[in-house]
């Protein structure tokens, strides 16, 4: 039971991390109608920036902030140089162009940081654990991730639903020509939204960096998961992304932890141990396929698309 | 149009095919075995890309999981060879049948969705199959499975002979292209091209578009399974990496680079991409840093791919000719 609680928390933490990635992806898709495969590269760059800046400055917080700013700047530059030209094109063009960007970023990282992975050690004050209920210790850093991600989700909600910029973003999503006709600089708005998405991806990368190795290609697997999340949640819907992300995080983590035992109830021990790893990796894809077959536009389709 | 100007596309395609047919003579004369291996691979991947072109280029179905059928065809060969069945007359029909069956099930589910959802659900199915292959511990799991004996065809053709194997691949590619040409000009092909430009209208006229799309999806999957069977015989090895999602991306790149919805486009794309990769990797170890932005430039400035460029050359020429006359 305690193990189950711990795995649920792990699932929640992973899900919220996925949300940070998926939120940027779904914003960019919902507003600019851009399929951005290079979103995973921004996540990777965030992690590499963090590993570098934390080492240089010697401070985890300062280094992380610098990494966040660097990813934001990178995202804005990327939008202005390349992706801006892809708006209004077919989705196939987006897939292909941003696929090219993935190759570019992976190779760039190999050139600058070398093929070996980096690690980002946690500072002592985060490398502790908290006793949640008597007898259950849980790493402080994972709780910090949950807290940061929830705070970002709240902030995003306030920005999008309660501010003037958020109003413009929503208006741009439903009718871009009208917003432009009313005298709003839609180009600037798009650049800002893309930068925001990039910063969120960078944040996810730098938060994940101390838990995993910082390595080339780290963005690709998680990018596919983030796509699964936004497809399940309904493309363009931030609320859908949050719910689907937590759902996917829980299903994936808890499935990996308990599926072998569950399978052992119905299969022989050896069959269960061969089937379980593959089945638990497949679980979320299976989930997505079921959702799409039942509701072809996701669980919470954004209005107007 | 003036008859004086031959279509540059026809010249390029004819030259390319002649080059492919004559290649073994060159490699025999120079002893350059590497070129033959490289071009065997190119021909096989051109077959896979051509099958994708049927649904992507002609049908407008943006499958991002086409490499799955490379893996399915390959694993069918690998698993049968592992079980001691090496006769190609048994292996190959099973490989094609299994690919067709997978394509039928996957297509039946995926074609319910459209647009980005279709891209994502085909990707999801390919990833599922990738993980299944990774989980096949008795067949090597992540590390893959070595094939110790290539398919045998009762002495009719020896696949271990590099030249014979190359000609087999080339013959299958050309036969498939001929079949695809007949197909896209037949009723089925006309209907799916109509669906690509306006599905709602096709349905209003009374075509059961879902069924037409599904048939094409299955044909494409089966043909790609054939490419997978060839690839497994070529590398003597199958592994989950054959169907990783970036491989599906590579196939899309070949189709778009060559020219979507053009019969010979994927062949030109496969040759261009793989030769470019080979050439760039000799210049620098970090060749993808050049290839990546190059793809972006193709997307931005050369929409029709190589085929589109060739068509443009022709248009310019005939424009000049009409000015003169």
Explain this structure to me?
The complex is a heterodimer of chains A (305) and B (325). Chain A is mainly α and 305 residues long. Chain A has a single domain (2-294), classed as ABC transporter involved in vitamin B12 uptake, BtuC (Orthogonal Bundle), CATH 1.10.3470. Helices cover 75% and strands 3% of the residues of chain A. Chain A has 11 helices and 2 strands, in the order ααααββααααααα. Chain A has helices at residues 2-32, 39-57, 60-81, 91-113, 140-162, 164-174, 176-181, 186-208, 218-233, 238-266, 269-294, and strands at 129-133, 136-139. Chain A has a two-stranded antiparallel sheet. In chain A, α1 (2-32) packs antiparallel against α8 (186-208), α1 (2-32) crosses α9 and α10 (238-266) runs antiparallel to α11. Chain A is globular and about 65 Å long. Chain B is mostly helical and 325 residues long. Chain B has one domain. Helices cover 75% and strands 1% of the residues of chain B. Chain B has 13 helices and 2 strands. In chain B, strands 1-2 form a two-stranded antiparallel sheet. Chains A and B meet through α4, α9 and α11 of A and α5, α10 and α12 of B.
